[in-house]
Amino acid sequence: MPKWIESQFPFARLSKIAEQESWRKEVYRPVYYIHKWWARRLGTVFRGIILGSCLDEREDFWQRYYGSNDFRQVSLFDPFMGSGVTIGEAVKLGCRSMGRDINPVAVTACQAAFSRYDYREIDAAYRVIESNVAPKLLKLFETRSAKGEPATVLYYFMVKVVGCPNCSATIDLFKRRIFSANAMPKKDPSARASCPACGAITHTRYDAEDASCPYCQQSFNPKIGTVSGPHVQCPHCDTRFKLVDRMKDIDGPLAYRRYAKMILLQDGRKVYESMNEYDHEMEKMVAEEYGSIVAGLPRVRVESGYNTDQMLKHNYRYWHELFSDRHILCIRQLADAIRAIENPDIRRLFACLFSGTLEFNNLFASFKGEGTGAVRHMFANHVLKPELMPIEANIWGTTKSSGAFSCLYHSRIERALRYKANPTEVVIDSHSGAKAGGFNHPLSAPIAASYQEFQNNRDSVYISQGDSGCTDIPDGSVDVIVSDPPFFDNVHYSQLADFFYYWLNHVLNLSPRDTTRHQAEVQDTDASLFTSKLTSVFAECRRVLKSDGLFVFSYHHARHDGWTAVHQAIRHAGFVCTRAYPIKAEMSVSMPLQQAKSPIHLDLILLCRKSSETNMRDTTHDALHTAIETANTQVSMLKSAGIAVSLADAKVILMGQLLCEAHHFCSLDREEAFLERREQDVDSYVADVLSSKGEVLYTATESNQLRLFEEMATYLANKPLHRAEKSLHR
User: Fold this and answer.
1) Percentage of the chain with pLDDT > 70?
2) pTM for the model
């Protein structure tokens, strides 16, 4: 009996629900946000994929989507587990779930997310840390207000400094003099700027181009600093130079200085003030204590790579150098307290909380502004870019802090634990943020360390670390494989994850290795190597999959080599793609968007089965027009659901259908010739449209829109056949 996903999968409605989830993913499914991972997919989508892969087509999909399910007879495997979305959604539906990832950070986070806990024991562990560590950390953020009142520092505002190569004067590397503005400036236009003459805090507007210091009467443009792009202008001698070039003459990362602070008064008011003598004395104490412990810190070098080279150019050679001296003192206290937790599962959970806190407390974090979470974490753009105006936040935190250990305990851990006990689903109705619950399985299970242990304990979840091209899962034992493979070289997971691994390994002793990088990681700028690694994993998927099992994964790409890679991996592994559905992706702004002039908002769900004899096509004409017709129908369905479709999305949708049609040819050479030529034609068409019309979106309200597929059908139909395609007629 065919499954739901093979005939009538409701991708448009699921996309609408997923769009709602995408606005507050950490609220709707907090269990996947215990720890940072990149490119998390939407739980709504993967619940739909898994449910559609388990249900017979005669079943009522939506009744089961918002109802009870028990697929205990269904074994599911995800070879690219990542943040664990597939595993979590499968557990909620009652599937027997297995996940694997080559990165130990991802594996540790998933183990923490899905383990079974005594919640009272977790609360007790937190209270011990709160009692023993919080006073020590908060003491490092004590200050006195301008009036001499005791106060707590919420944030120190910092600026990197460099010596002028001409006059040797110290230059503050301000990109702008405004260091604080509201996140919604049109509602609250007030801002704070640092006077370039005396350093005093000046009240101004976010859009002001002139300001006057109330203390020294210096006039200045608060939008202009000493840094413009890659260049630095010395305010003392007017010498202009490139910062990267200057870094070559400096041993180690740039020094920094604290120039302002936001303090919390005892009456609950937040106030901006300049640094005072009390603060400077505290800085001296912190520096002395840091000097006494720095030699004992683990010294792990930063390896060269696409992301890490950005750091290396700024002389960050070791991972501990990404933190201020005050950060390090706090981190040491937290790390020691977490290592002392006896229960290994709870120790791992708090290690993830600790590691996640560091995302907001480092020299690459910056101030986002008031009116929202104040700290912009270091991975806001999936890069490791040094920050010239970092923020030093109170790492333990207060009720008015952002990104602090205590705050994240309540917003991440407690919220995740409540969700684990009663997982809910997003509901689209008149009430934004509506949820439905009471029908899912709890998200708690013993974590099996091997397949045999998984088999012996029917309640367990099997989570393993290693190369997914080689597992201990027996032949033909898996019913459904659902995954989200890496999109070629879009996100360099291991390079980014090493930031967390440095501290997680320090606390948990995960392995003797100093890096998460691995030669088998399916991540490579070289197209042939990426294809080879992806094929290896897909081949292992075919080995463990039952003869009638389904292999479903999400994918999209803007470049030709991305499509070639996934096509070759599917076919060389012994699969054929039988269905392709467009679906709402993780977010509207993501790394793949940088690859194209027109953004990609959608993923493809590619449904594969083990290859077998299929009917040959007489001509490519039928395949092409079938693909266009199906793609056009899917675009119309998305449009009717209110989902915008860009030109790049249109290409993704069409390429998915072309991929399915090509696999009827039963010849890799013919398939590749067909796909390559059609993709070239589509790219040519899209480029012409973009050059003449700019970005084009389909929206539910747009009345005069470009009829992309009608025009594309005509365009493609009039293109002459390639020689390799003509052979299909013979």
Assistant:
1) 91
2) 0.93
